[in-house]
Structure formats: structure tokens, C-alpha cells
Design brief:
- By secondary structure, the protein is an alpha+beta fold.
- The protein folds into 2 domains: about 160 residues, no CATH class; about 160 residues, no CATH class.
- Helices cover about 15% and strands about 35% of the residues.
- It has 5 helices and 20 strands.
- The strands form 6 sheets. A 6-stranded antiparallel beta sheet has the order 3-2-5-13-10-9, with no helix packed on it. A 5-stranded antiparallel beta sheet has the order 4-1-6-7-8, with no helix packed on it.
């Protein structure tokens, strides 16, 4: 886990071990919705989502949490881990997509639009299963993205149940506007594909956004979001690692559990001094936080179920001390807590 969503190797900061150590210190919280997993030292199983898309832009969500984004005119492959956003029981995988045609330089569907979606499930004994969630291409005759009976790559029959994972028969594809990072929105051919799977795994944690309320974009919500960004910015600019860990504890607690550091506090604490300061490494500094009034008109990005949100342009941004150019943004999502204050509930994987 890293503190930035964009990063260069020479500018890597806080190590995973340091995050784990501070997670243990701040594990007590009244906000958390995670079930009791004290009987487990770590998860019994590991899961990742395999996404392969051709001729489409895509946003990928697990239980409403963004885990991958593709916005370039080329094929796309991603394998985001699922442990921090999945749950024991029913899980929803959502892909918002916009087809494109390189030859005609247009956003129109054609038979080259293709999507393969699967879950890779690995047990602690290294037994591996692959479960097919969707495998198909666009049919020009029906004007729909259609499921195939076989894997388009291997030609083998699809596997809809294996290990702890079972794909539910319901599959929906509905119209859905597709917002680009530039702020432009496309809607004529953009769609939302939703697949539901059952994962029978009691060792899985409940995501911190499980019971978060649905958000509505309003001046009041933006004020609370700005307050949350201000607290997080303060932790960075003051190099306050304890405050940073307190803000990130919902994310860090789960990261520590998934990585199996339970009961190894001293080993994790040994790494707390590594990494440049939160306020910026050599040759970089934090850009000033936007004003509260400017934040009222900032573009926002929501999860697919509207339970989490972040500012699209990353208010917490590292810039070059010499040129002022952007180097890396801190990408986290916020949910509304039971105390009506917003808290960090998700950090997308790199």
C-alpha cells in the first residue's frame, strides 16, 4: 500500500511495514464495521480480479469501490486484489465501459469490442481456481455485448463455480454515462455491466464502507469532504505520522490483516523510520490545499453505488520544488461515518 496513486520509484515513501505497525496502534475504532476475525491470523484465501478488455475504456468496481481505470486507446489488462473490498457472502463486480474504434476514430461499438472478466482464487495451500464472471464480445446484429459459452482465449468451457466462489446467474447490462478524467462525459454507447458472485469465506473482512450511507452531491456534503481533506492534509504538511495513521486506520487495519502481520508488532515497528517525510521528499513539496469556496465547484468522483467519494483533481498533491509541476497525488476515497463526519474508507490499489 502506498500513499500516492501516482508515483515514481525514486519518490517512494512510507513502507508497507510502517503502515502495518501504525495500523496495530490505531486498531480500536467505533466506526469499523468489520466482523470478528480474532480466530484467524490471516485470510484463509486470496482473491484477485482478472480484467482483460479490448477496444473499450473501463472503470472497474468491487462492491462499489473503484479498483481499476482504463482511459487509453489500447488494450487493457489489470489484476487488482480483492481482499480489502470483498466480503463473506454476496459481492458485486461492476464495469462501466465506453467502446471505441481506433480505425474510424470514434466511440462506436464493433465486433472487436471484447471483455474477459474472472476471479483468481488461491488457497493457503497454493491450490488455484479460476472462475469466469464474463467472457464475450460485442454482437453487431443485436447491438449488445454478449456472453460466450466458451473462453474466447482458450476455447474451453466457462467455469462458473470453483473453490469458494459461485457466479450468480443474474447478469445485467444497462445504459450508464461514462465520465472521463478530462471531465467530459459520454453516454450514447456507454454501458454498465454488473455481475454478482457468492464467496463462502468466513475469514474475509467486511469492508469499512459496508454500511456507509448513499451520498448526494450538495454544499453540505462538500463542506464535510473538505474538512476531511483538511485533516488529512494537516497530517501530511506537519509530518504527523500518528495523525496520518489515525486517518487511514480503516484501510491500514485491513492491509495488516491481509498481509499476515497479526502478532508481529515489533517487527513492523522496526520499519517506522524508513521513508521520506509526509510533507515531501527531496525536490518536492505539497501544493497548498484549495480554498473551501473553490472546493464547492471541484469535480468529484464517486463509487458505483455512491457510498464513497473523492475530489477528481487530488487536492493533496506533491509538486516539484523547482518547476511547480505535479509529481504525485494522494488518492483516497471518503465515506460518511456514523458521527456525520467523513472518513477514509478506501484506497484504490496501484
Amino acid at each position: 500500500m502506498v500513499r500516492r496513486i501516482i508515483s515514481r520509484n525514486t519518490l517512494s515513501h512510507m513502507t508497507a511495514a510502517w503502515l502495518i505497525a501504525l495500523a496495530i496502534i490505531f486498531m480500536t475504532t467505533t466506526r469499523s464495521t468489520a466482523q470478528d476475525t480474532t480466530m484467524f491470523d490471516r485470510p484463509d484465501n486470496y482473491y484477485s480480479l482478472s480484467v482483460r478488455a479490448e477496444n473499450m475504456f473501463a472503470r472497474v468496481y468491487i462492491n462499489g469501490a473503484p479498483v481499476a481505470y482504463h482511459g487509453r486507446l489500447r488494450d487493457f489488462q489489470a489484476n487488482p486484489s480483492m481482499e480489502q473490498v470483498m466480503r463473506h457472502g454476496e459481492n458485486t463486480i461492476t464495469i462501466d465501459y465506453e467502446p471505441f474504434n481506433v480505425e474510424t476514430e470514434s466511440f462506436t461499438p464493433h465486433d472487436g469490442v471484447r471483455l474477459e472478466l474472472a476471479i483468481r482464487h488461491e488457497t493457503q495451500t497454493r491450490e488455484v481456481f479460476r472462475i469466469d464472471l464474463f467472457n464475450g464480445r460485442f454482437n453487431p446484429q443485436t447491438q449488445r455485448l454478449e456472453m460466450s459459452d466458451t473462453n474466447l482465449t482458450t476455447g474451453r468451457p466457462l467455469v462458473l463455480a470453483a473453490g469458494t466462489v459461485t457466479v450468480q446467474p443474474q447478469l445485467s447490462i444497462e445504459p450508464q454515462p461514462f465520465p472521463f478524467s478530462s471531465g467530459r462525459t459520454s453516454s450514447e454507447f456507454s454501458r454498465r455491466l454488473t455481475v454478482t458472485v457468492d464467496i463462502d469465506d468466513p475469514s474475509a473482512l467486511t469492508p469499512p464502507f459496508e454500511d456507509a450511507p448513499v451520498l448526494t452531491d450538495s454544499p453540505e456534503m462538500r463542506d464535510k469532504l473538505y474538512d476531511a481533506y483538511t485533516r488529512f492534509y494537516t497530517a501530511h504538511v506537519n509530518n504527523d505520522r500518528a495523525l496520518y495513521a489515525a486517518q487511514m486506520r480503516e484501510v491500514i487495519d485491513r492491509f495488516a490483516y491481509v498481509r499476515g502481520y497479526k502478532g508481529r508488532e515489533e517487527e513492523a515497528l522496526d520499519a517506522t523510520l524508513s521513508g521520506p517525510p509526509l510533507s515531501g521528499g527531496e525536490g518536492e513539496e505539497l501544493r497548498p490545499l484549495p480554498s473551501r469556496s473553490a472546493f464547492q465547484t471541484a469535480r468529484l468522483s464517486f463509487g458505483s453505488n455512491m457510498r464513497m467519494v473523492r475530489a477528481s483533481d487530488h487536492p493533496i498533491m506533491y509538486v516539484s520544488s523547482q518547476t511547480g509541476k505535479n509529481i504525485a497525488g494522494v488518492g483516497v476515497f471518503f465515506c460518511m461515518g456514523q458521527d456525520s463526519e467523513m472518513f477514509i474508507c478506501h484506497q484504490p490499489p496501484r
